[in-house]
Amino acid sequence: MSFFLGIDIGTSGVKSIIVDHDDRVCAEASAALTIQRPHPLWSEQDPQAWWNAVVASLDALAKNHAAALSAVESIGLSGQMLGVALIDQNGDAIRPALLWNDGRSAKECDELEHAFADFPGITGSRAMPGFSAPKLRWLSKHEPRALHAARHVLLPKDFVRLRLTGDALTDLSDASATLLVDARRGTYDDAILAACGVSASQLPPIIPSDAIGGTLRDELATRWRMKPGLPVVGGAADNMAGALGAGVVTSGDAFISLGTSGVYFVANHMFVPACDRGMHTHRHAVGGLFAQHGVVLSATAALSWIADVTGGDVGELVRSIDTAPLSLSETAVFTPYLGGERTPHNDPRLTAAFSGLTFATTRRHLVQGVMEGVAMALGDCHQALTSSGVKIERVALVGGGSRSRFWTTLIASAIGCPVTLSKTAAFGPALGAARLARVAVGGPLIAEAGRELKATVEPAPDLAEALSGKRKAFVSHLKLG
């Protein structure tokens, strides 16, 4: 039997899964990651930590699922988007990587948009803090020696590829989101590179997501008892890989990823930027399609935060809400802008807030309030998408947060349409990466088994009405801020 390995380098951890030819997940392993925030608005990780987590997850698979791992035919990669890793000629990081939720480059965003007559028309998105281009411009101004010393400027999954294969490459879906690429042509824009202080020679060549991008190094194949010369495919940005994991492969298909951030993603056969609404338009991992999406910067990250602040276990807290949800009339209103917000506000300095607190407020009220706030923020994304003319035929929900039935129902109620859950919803980008690995060696993009639904969750009229009533307090925070 043939097996395929999908590796997802997320923000909170690395997940590696093995799937068979029919999309059945046969094995999984994960390893945690942490974020460093040395200054306000900064968000960083050590690229070496990504690699250590990948090694730990594959060591675990080699120990516990040796037979399946030894039968793997190809490897697919997915990773958190927009990260800037400066890598020297020895393949080591020069400084910590600047992550997708790093907000230090607001000034550089303004400078880029003033430097180009139609920056969003070229790149598919307004310049926003967190994107690669303004962060590179920030580095060119504040840490020019580090940027100049970089032999490679890599995205997270592509740093892992470098360690796996020795090759510096990227795929079109990940590259197109950096704002260094002409979204229509799918090639680096020389004028933008110059404005960001980076040369084309420092950037990896761009290949299709399903193309083979190197082979597994012999010493690693020996370590994990895998086949020698195993192909490692181009892979995809985590949002685009998540779309593949959710079966979002035709125009009008949509999914919401409920992970560290919340992403509302729609596949479109046309390039139709809606930058005034905080939407991003990049290239899908499926050839011929574009990806339009809005981003809520803090989704499960907000739950982890409230659990840390109140001293609870996030899993136990969510299960307690699922078991016995509170009335929305009792819970606090929460705006989830812990690290600023992208869609639709594009403001890194927005802050989070609770309102409606009383002496009767408990930890459970706060936790459910966070879930409601994230749902309402995703409702803002839905409105931004649909008001720009995007047609949404169906919405799938993926990511770790999709395990909560109550949160799923809240989201369906906030966006006003049913959401579907597949049996593999929790595997998201890792599954999409494994599917690309299968395509690269001649398999189908999505096996029939991958279309099996676990459930369809309808909006709840009472929740929709209650959320609508809470929106006044939700929106008033923006005016106060």
UniProtKB/TrEMBL annotation:
Record key words, sorted:
ATP-binding, Carbohydrate metabolism, Kinase, Nucleotide-binding, Transferase, Xylose metabolism
Q: Where is the Carbohydrate kinase FGGY C-terminal domain?
A: 255-440
Domain Carbohydrate kinase FGGY N-terminal: from-to ranges? 4-245
A biological-process GO annotation: D-xylose metabolic process
Task: Quickly give the catalysed reaction.
Answer: D-xylulose + ATP = D-xylulose 5-phosphate + ADP + H(+)
What terms describe the molecular function in GO for this protein? ATP binding; D-xylulokinase activity
> Could you confirm whether the keyword Transferase appears in this record?
yes
Highest taxon in the source lineage: Bacteria
**Membrane-crossing segments per the record:** none
* EC number, UniProt record: 2.7.1.17
NCBIfam families given in the database record? XylB (TIGR01312)
Family listed? Belongs to the FGGY kinase family.
Name of the protein in its database record: Xylulose kinase
Species of provenance: Microvirga brassicacearum
Q: Which gene encodes it?
A: xylB
